[in-house]
Amino acid sequence: MAQTREIASRIISHDANIGVMGKFKPVRANAKKTTRPQGAAGCVILILLIMVGVMVFLYLVMKSNANG
């Protein structure tokens, strides 16, 4: 039992942790802001045009197959 306490006191030194922890600075949350990629606007416009094209296609298909 005494030998276990001696080994534990060698491994865990409570005073050493305070000195080591004081040397490290905490990481800042807003260190560097990420910027948007340059092609974002063109990609959004392309997606919107594809959506409009699909809606027009579905409208024409439904109009040609309507009964009446």
What does this entry show, briefly?
By secondary structure, the protein is an all-alpha fold. 63% of the residues lie in helices and 0% in strands.
Give a verbal description of the structure.
This protein is an all-alpha fold and 68 residues long. 63% of the residues lie in helices and 0% in strands. The longest helix is centred in the last third of the chain and has 25 residues, at 40-64. 0% of the residues are buried. The model has no long low-confidence stretch (mean pLDDT 75).
What labels would you give this structure?
63% helix, 3 helices, 68 residues, single chain, mainly alpha
Q: Count of helices?
A: 3
Using only C-alpha atoms, the radius of gyration works out to 33 Å
Global geometry: elongated
N- and C-termini, Cα separation: 96 Å
Poorly predicted tracts of residues: none
Which structural class do the helices and strands define?
Answer: mainly alpha
State the total count of DSSP E strands: 0
Q: H/E order of the elements?
A: HHH
For the report, how would you describe the main beta sheet?
none
Helix content: 55-70%
Share in β-strands: under 5%
Report the mean per-residue pLDDT as an integer.
75
